[in-house]
Write a structure and sequence with these properties.
This protein has 82 residues and is of the alpha+beta class. It has a single domain, classed as Trna Endonuclease, Chain: A, domain 1, CATH 3.40.1350.10. The chain has one helix and four strands; from the N terminus they run ββαββ. A four-stranded mixed sheet has the order 1-2-3-4, covered by helices on one side. It is elongated and about 40 Å long.
């Protein structure tokens, strides 16, 4: 988990992935099922510790392709469900 932010009343958990080329797939593909599961556990822990269990949350992925000129940045809001 790279960023925890607020978007209005929503807590947003963000994973940022960068790639230099497509030899190993797209940056967003690097957020595997295992990584999503880990992010969900971190999110629940964060929400519990901060008494935010009754608030909305979402999971975003930011994919950065540094091989483009200029680098391409894609934001995937609600990339997956909890």
């Amino acid at each position: 988990m790279d960023i925890i932010a607020r978007d209005g009343q929503t807590t947003v958990f963000v994973e940022v992935k960068a790639r230099d080329g497509h030899d190993f797939g797209d940056a967003v593909e690097a957020v595997t099922r295992r990584k999503r599961r880990r992010m969900k556990h971190v999110a629940v822990d964060y929400l519990m510790r901060n008494d935010l269990l009754d608030t909305r949350c979402r999971f975003d992925v930011v994919a950065i392709h540094v091989d483009a000129d200029p680098p391409a940045i894609e934001v995937y809001q609600n990339a997956f469900d909890a």
